[in-house]
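FAQ: What does the model actually see?

It sees only this:
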Amino acid sequence: MPSFTKPLSYAALMLCLHIAPGVAEAGEYAARIEYADLDRVDDGYDVQAHIDYQLSPTAKEALHKGVRLTWDVAIELRQPGVLWDTIIHKHKLTYSLQFHALLNQYVVQTPFDRSEMFLTLSAAMNFMAAVHDSMPIPAELVVGGTPYLLAVKTQFNREQLPIPLRPVAYLDNQWFLSSAWHTWPIQK
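And it is asked to produce this:
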């Protein structure tokens, strides 16, 4: 083996060891699902949830330069099983946040093509935090007296970022803005 490949392979190994811890851990900027519940409505059950989004300094900088940040909120109603849970109902809600410099306002795009404008980032984030699902879970799927689990997760969608930013977003833990699955027992 030529002698010049040893320093190169050593440098590659050190780079991998330096990057690997950041890839494995979400860090302090991961979103947190604070609670979720089902509310009875006319044609089924409406999901109510609260998500605490924490933007890293890198994500805030990108946002203020006009980059749209997008999250997919996954909702599942599960029936607990002995070995695994059965998914009774699932759907996804997409939220995006963008700053418009000319208007000096933040725009939150909600599912079903509804958008809201805000003067401050905290107001926009508070609006996004309250998930009010307008796709109710059909009432016939929920049987009275049966235990269920309501599972909620928010996933930061890196594929919606501009192409040059995507590789960095996969490696830098400042872009790990997703949450893990959180479940709540539901008895109806």
